[in-house]
Amino acid sequence: MAAVYQALHRRVSSLVCRLHSTYVRKMRYLNQLKEDDSLCRQAQTSGTFYLFHNLSPFLQKVGKKYLVPQLSAAEMRRVLEKFPEAEQWMEKSVLIGCSDEHRPRFALDLGALDKSVIESELQGSFTDLRKALFVVDREDSPLLASAQSLLRWHDSHQYCSRTGQPTHKNPAGSKRVCHASGVTYYPQMSPVVITLVSDGSRCLLARQPSFPPGMFTALSGFCDMGENVEEAVRREVAEEVGLEVESLSYSASQHWPFPSSSLMIACHALVAAQRAEISMDTLELEEARWFGLEEIVEGLKRQPSSSKQGDGSFLPWFPPKQAIAHQLIQEWLQQQTAQTA
Ligand SMILES: NC(=O)C1=CN([C@@H]2O[C@H](COP(=O)(O)OP(=O)(O)OC[C@H]3O[C@@H](n4cnc5c(N)ncnc54)[C@H](O)[C@@H]3O)[C@@H](O)[C@H]2O)C=CC1
Ligand SMILES: [Mg+2]
């Protein structure tokens, strides 16, 4: 029995080792592409491309499924041939990853070109990211989100804020440089805390006036300069609902592309049950209230479309699986269920 166990252990270890080395080799290759401009230019000729138009990703509908096509460099040239200065367009692409076989992936925004020509040539359509993220396969959503954020950053950092001169992108798109001042700009994202507050038996969800009717989510807020995650959580909860956090724990994080690139840092926080009276910040929030276990179970089953009542009001529903708020709510539910079991 021990021999079987040892053989199994050796097999698992060697598999893990091989997995690691694929991953490590891939990360090292991507880093090389960011640092070595000529290697990156060469990689463009064998890479695949995701297309965007004014930050909307290109999707193809096949039956009921939405696919995110990866075009080869040859296919890209065929499309771009229809427009003047085709080669210049390829140079605008940014590196967004690579396959396990080291085939690099790029994203390219063709916003200045006629959308309908590209859509009819490639038989698909440029789709708003707010829709695209929720209809494509789950593994494609983070890729679209990060590609769009990087393209957006390049679009809004074309000039040096010190000299006003144009900045120049490196082939991978991992930075922009102003030749006049020598300043290098790197892609930025804003840290945001998202907190599911609990008083031990209920959790607190809120809605802003801009949310779709009926949608409630966890409290969120941008971190202030100099603040750590714990301070940001305590401050946001105090500001938005007037409660004092007693303890908190980190859950997970997620890149979020709306309204521009954020790093969502998700936490659970506990407030004392005897000091759980909400005093809402009415400038930001329209409603904030406690939800019991049953209401959370019902809300998770509800779709936006089934939330509307006969009298025009809306029953609560929660963000979809792609949003980290959903994960926080699921974790809270599991914890409560385990406690009451
Ligand atoms: N993925 C998810 O599950 C969820 C994501 N979110 C995201 O979290 C973000 C922050 O949530 P809010 O409650 O709106 O933040 P918030 O509570 O900090 O209020 C927003 C205000 O903060 C200020 N602000 C400070 N730094 C900012 C920056 N870097 N960018 C933009 N505004 C800044 C602005 O005045 C803005 O109006 C939202 O953009 C939203 O998309 C929110 C809930 C769920
Ligand atoms: Mg907020």
TrEMBL record:
Gene Ontology molecular function: hydrolase activity; metal ion binding
Gene3D superfamilies tied to this protein: 3.90.79.20, Nucleoside Triphosphate Pyrophosphohydrolase
Lineage: superkingdom: Eukaryota
Its EC number(s): 3.6.1.22
Cofactors: Mg(2+)
One Pfam assignment: Zn_ribbon_NUD
NCBIfam families reported in the protein's UniProt record: PRK00241.1
Protein name, as recorded: NAD(+) diphosphatase
Source organism: Ficedula albicollis (Collared flycatcher)
